[in-house]
Design brief:
The complex is a heterodimer of chains A (about 130) and B (about 375).
Chain A lengths: L6 H10 L5 E4 L5 E2 L14 E4 L4 E10 L9 E8 L4 E4 L14 E8 L5 E7 L5
Chain B lengths: L6 E12 L6 H16 L8 E4 L7 H9 L5 E3 L7 H14 L5 E8 L1 H4 L22 H15 L3 H15 L13 H6 L2 E3 L2 E2 L8 E10 L11 E10 L15 H12 L8 E4 L4 H10 L8 H5 L17 H4 L7 H13 L12 E8 L4 E8 L5
Parallel strand pairs in B: 2-3, 2-4, 9-10
Antiparallel strand pairs in B: 1-7, 1-8, 4-7, 5-6, 8-11, 10-11
Classes of the chains: A mainly beta (about 130), B alpha/beta (about 375).
Amino acid sequence: MEKGPGPDAVFAAKLADGVFEIQKCGGCGSHVFHPRVICPACGSADLEWVAPTGRGTIYARTIVRRKPERGGDYNVVLVDLDEGVRMMSRVDGIAHDEIAAGLKVSASIGEGADGGPAVVFRPEGGAS
Amino acid sequence: MSLRGKAAIVGAALAGCGEAHGKSAMEITVEAVHGALADAGVSLGEVDAIATCQPLDMLSGLTLAQELGLNPRFTMNNRMGGSSFLSHTLWAAMLLELRLADTVLIAYGSNQRTASGKLMTALGLPTYEAPYKPLFPLSSYALAADRHMTQFGTTREQLADVAVAARAWARKNPEAFMRDPLTREDVIASRPVSDPLRVRDCCLVTDGGGALIMRRAETAKDHPRPPVYLLGGGEGTTHRDISEMPDLTATGAAQSGAAARDMAGVTPADIDVVQLYDAFTINVILFLEDLGFCKKGEGGAFVEGGGIAPGGHLPVNTNGGGLSCVHPGMYGIFTLVEAVRQLRGEAGDRQIDGAELALAHGNGGVLSSQVTNILGTEATL
């Protein structure tokens, strides 16, 4: 294994630079997210960083109910990227109850709950 | 070599269920231990192996040994969340069969209701989920429920019927925490928390503890109460975080249940009474499917209209479950205590006539760890 930061720190540093990348296994060709030391499909440590297309499909959605004075409702989703990996995120630019499994979305870098950079999604085609 | 019928639960007790004002988690735990020892007719000094897992005390096995004044030959502190205790029974059976221990104590206790009024946990949000603020653990189960509804057409009403059935059982159990009538309409009108789940889809927040004493089958009849034999067990671990669960509609209960049935030599149709960790209503639907009581996708229809309520086609969570009886954070041990009571025939108004085979199932994390135990009376050996 190489010296230097581990995959979590590399991912975070890329994100802070405005870059969203996932890993791809040189052993079996699988894409990998979240970032790992070895490929969970084949065990290879030959993982390289690649840019995903950013396109994905909603797998599941919940709306967290919160009083308006505490910021109001928000959505939490699981997105299946076209590369075959899943991640948690949220969808902006659409009413919460219009988000459902099957919705096509595309990734960008927005702001997470802690104010740091986070991968978020919008409906593909820019639905308002 | 099989562990089938090699070890038995010879003592079981609850303590501090509901509200245990002014008591610490470990004090509730030790009260349960005291009760289980009395139930088993075993003296404290005979205990030579212990198992526990507590939400906030990472070294709870050591704390329990200290509080009991024991120097055990083995101290098990396996932590997989609420399923841990159903794994402890399997390790206990292994220790007993290998004669590495003679008397194993399994115990749990929590004061989460009176101490904090909410789930007490040492867990934070996972790194790759925290930016999106899912409610822990509620939103994870909400996502699973949403997916099940999308994929199989499971309805809001069917989810509600799980909570209604639990309440109907709780109304037969004087020890249950919530015993007021509850209708499908009440559940659907309750406060939304993380869609599609509402407050009445969620387990209670109570205090409570439980303890079990296990011994080898050959000496299991030397105790006051009828032994309850461990016939089979198995585990499944599919992920830790919900975003890493391969299929939100298929849990590790398929693996754990098959392993438990294979060891026990029974089919789902043989089981007389079922105790499932119902942290949320969707859990029951998922586990009934994955444990083979119905086909995948048909869990909603299985529970609809009183299917698992008193008088239904399968008695599930006869104590009222985590939804209506007791839920002090890590419920697994309560599935075992209720199974023991049913197999001893001491469940009062909720007793299932002629219950000989019981299935107890624990869930840990966010549908992450699944552990199944199949238990039986002497007649099933």
